[in-house]
Write a structure and sequence with these properties.
Elements: H1 4-11, E1 25-27, E2 30-32, E3 38-39, E4 42-45, H2 66-77, H3 79-92, H4 96-104, E5 109-115, H5 116-119, H6 128-144, E6 147-154, H7 178-195, E7 201-205, H8 215-218, H9 220-235, E8 242-246, H10 248-251, E9 265-270, H11 282-291, E10 295-299, H12 305-317, E11 321-324, E12 328-330, E13 337-339, H13 345-350, H14 360-373, E14 380-381, H15 383-390, E15 397-398, E16 411-412, E17 429-432, E18 457-461, E19 466-470, E20 481-483, E21 492-497, E22 500-505, E23 509-511, E24 513-515
Parallel strand pairs: 4-5, 4-11, 5-6, 6-7, 7-8, 8-9, 9-10, 10-11, 12-13
Antiparallel strand pairs: 1-2, 2-3, 13-14, 15-24, 16-19, 17-18, 18-23, 19-22, 20-24, 21-22
Length: about 525
């Protein structure tokens, strides 16, 4: 086993170990540890391990849900070999070296997405093999000082009606069939009974992204009623752990949160592919103030380094803990860990639509090699993603990623032309680098691709205007370069500030990005 201190030195990030002396809990609209120390949670999601998602395998329609992926692999390998593959997959995709690396990289918790089919059988009884996966994870996290947030990502019957919850018929049948509701109540009672006295468990995330799209209007009252019943069920066996409730419509609609169901609870939202600004989280902040409960950004990512840096500074400015999605997937630039797809993987992907694309012998070889490739020691480590998340010597900062504390704190600017829908609460002249055929939303880089010319944003600055960019303590600003709209060195002065760096315009100029490493 590699020492975490050695790993931290290799990765260049500062660990922030969890404290298991008591239980994480809510206090005065914030999250605190067992000793009452206020926490700003920073974590990563272990997506794809207990609930596979097709896009993380580079699959498209036809192999998006766990059931569909299982069907594909059984078709390619045969039933016995497929069963053996999944057994080894669950040993390899997330293992203790992953947890070591997460702890060494400056995170304090992981969020574990769970498919109910792995921990509960058709009768509703617990499946010990699935719980043993959770127990292993908790053991590793105890060793490496990370909390674990248990997330019911795929509830019995499905809570979303989409591929992400493994719903059997593509419907949110959790709200349609009483048997699924009963099984969900039992699942959480069983889980809470098992972990009631486990301080490594951060809390219980009751349902992931329930009722998106039209379902948010159809079953909102049923969701609120289920949350109340789940609360009572869990509190009957566990008075210790934090309960986490997500809103409807991909956890973005909080209309159901009109009262406090449990004093030791937290509300969760998710944020993807949208402007990283105060207006985008204002409704969540209002609920925090009204109900006096802590709030948490439980999923966000799948974007550029520029967006990641800016969005996660926004959350921290408003004392919102967060969890980045996801830790690892195949052939990605947007996660800290990327699995190098084995030779022939493209044929496996093609076989979703064309069964003749790959034969069984070659498929067996490809999946065997994938099991080896997914072990973290064989993966591509991408510390620039972590650096953007933690603002710790990031590769690049966009000009529009200045601080979120308002005029006089994060910027001083001559009256500008605020861009509608993009940080328009800040009186800073953000504009298109190339005006013309510009998109309504320039933040839809789900694969982390570079910005297209029409998506590029700049900030126009008058002489003596300044912008502050927040960075982790200890940053040396000496090598920082600032580029203008043409990609040339901008006419600015870079000074250290108490929160990072201040970029001051020496003359009228525009800036497009900051390169802290030079």
């Amino acid at each position: 086993m590699t020492d975490t201190t050695t790993l931290a030195a290799e990765s260049g990030f500062e660990p922030r170990p969890a404290n298991f002396d008591g239980y994480v809990h809510a206090h005065n609209a914030r999250v605190v540890d067992g000793g009452g120390r206020e926490l700003l949670l920073r974590g990563v999601g272990l997506g794809n391990w207990m609930l596979p998602e097709g896009y993380m395998w580079r699959f498209g329609p036809g192999a998006e849900s766990p059931r569909q992926i299982e069907t594909l692999i059984e078709r390619l390998l045969g039933a016995d070999a497929a069963e053996a593959f999944w057994a080894e997959f669950r040993n390899s995709f997330i293992a203790e070296p992953d947890i070591e690396r997460i702890a060494a990289s400056g995170f304090d918790h992981v969020r574990l997405p769970i498919n109910s089919r792995l921990i509960q059988d058709e009768s509703g009884a617990p499946i010990e093999a699935g719980y043993e996966m959770i127990d292993r994870l908790i053991g590793w996290c105890r060793t490496h000082k990370l909390w674990v947030l248990l997330d019911l990502h795929g509830a019995p019957g499905g809570q979303t009606g989409t591929n992400i919850d493994d719903s059997p018929r593509g419907l949110p049948e959790l709200f349609m069939e009483s048997s699924y509701r009963d099984k969900t109540l039992r699942l959480w009672r069983d889980m809470a009974t098992r972990y009631a006295t486990e301080p490594v468990v951060l809390g219980y995330d009751l349902l992931n992204e329930p009722l998106p799209n039209e379902w948010q209007h159809t079953y909102a009252d049923d969701l609120a009623a289920l949350y109340r019943d789940l609360t009572a069920e869990i509190r009957g066996v566990d008075r210790n752990h934090l309960l986490v409730y997500e809103g409807t419509h991909w956890a973005t609609n909080w209309d159901i949160f009109t009262e406090v169901w449990d004093d030791n609870s937290m509300l969760q939202f998710h944020k993807y592919w949208s402007s990283p600004d105060a207006a985008g989280i204002a409704s969540f902040l209002a609920v925090r103030d009204r109900l006096g409960l802590p709030i948490y950004m439980g999923e966000g990512g799948e974007n550029t380094l520029e967006w990641i840096y800016t969005a996660f500074r926004l959350y921290e400015t408003y004392d919102i803990g967060w969890n980045f999605w996801p830790w690892k997937k195949i052939a990605t630039t947007t996660s800290p860990v990327s699995i190098d797809a084995p030779s022939g993987w493209g044929k496996v992907v093609a076989s979703v639509d064309d069964p003749s694309a790959i034969g069984s012998i070659e498929a067996a070889r490809v999946f065997d090699e994938l099991l080896v490739a997914m072990r973290i020691e064989n993966c591509k480590w991408q510390p620039d993603v972590v650096a953007a998340l933690l603002a710790d010597r990031p590769v690049v900062i966009p000009a529009w990623g200045f601080g979120h504390r308002g005029s006089g704190e994060s910027y001083s600017s001559a009256p500008g032309r605020a861009m509608r829908g993009i940080r328009d609460d800040d009186d800073v002249a953000i504009s298109w680098a190339r005006p013309g055929d510009n998109p309504d939303n320039p933040f839809e880089q789900s694969d982390g691709r570079p910005y297209r010319p029409a998506e590029e944003l700049i900030v126009e600055m008058a002489a003596h205007d300044w912008l502050e960019f927040e960075l982790a303590p200890g940053f040396d600003s000496g090598s920082t370069r600032v580029l203008d709209a043409r990609g040339q060195v901008a006419d600015v002065i870079v000074q250290p500030s108490s929160r990072g760096i201040r970029v001051i315009a020496a003359a009228a100029t525009s800036i497009s990005r900051i390169l802290p490493r030079g």
